[in-house]
Design goal:
Oligomer: single chain
Structural class: alpha+beta
Shape: globular
Order of helices and strands: HEEHEEEEH
């Protein structure tokens, strides 16, 4: 399969960062006041520090992660992915909205099937509870 590309530098960087599983680079693509809407509950994480931390843990929970399609232009992008959470397969879409500086201002994830989303929620709740860096952040 050919390597996915995107015409926007932030989207291209996001594809590169996630493919390399490089959590240290996540903040460079996020707006300071970014909002992250996870697929596991109806709440949101706000701010570059919190969202970068959540995404760094997601990188560890997902395995066999790869983007399948990249669609969009201008401010609005959809990145279709597939992955595994434990033994469960999943497909999903990262819906990204960019700000005036071209950084990700809104990051919403939709995913299926339900059993994989439930496994993701369980794994992420355990990680958040054990990571002291979440202590100073407003909970989602």
């Amino acid at each position: 399969m050919s390597k996915l590309t995107a015409d926007h530098p932030t989207i291209a960087a996001a594809l590169e960062i996630l493919a390399a599983k490089d959590p240290a680079r996540i903040p460079e693509i996020l707006a300071e006041d970014v909002v992250f809407l996870p697929p596991t509950y109806w709440a949101e994480w706000r701010g570059r520090q919190a969202v970068a931390l959540v995404l760094s843990h997601v990188m560890q929970v997902f395995s066999d992660f790869r983007y399948r399609r990249v669609m969009g232009a201008g401010r609005d992008w959809a990145l279709e992915f597939q992955c595994k959470v434990g033994e469960f397969d999943a497909v999903g879409v990262d819906l990204l909205t960019l700000d005036d500086e071209g950084r990700i201002a809104r990051f919403e994830v939709v995913m299926r099937p339900l059993k994989t989303v439930a496994a993701l929620r369980e794994a992420m709740n355990a990680r958040v509870a054990q990571d002291p860096r979440f202590a100073g952040l407003k909970p989602a």
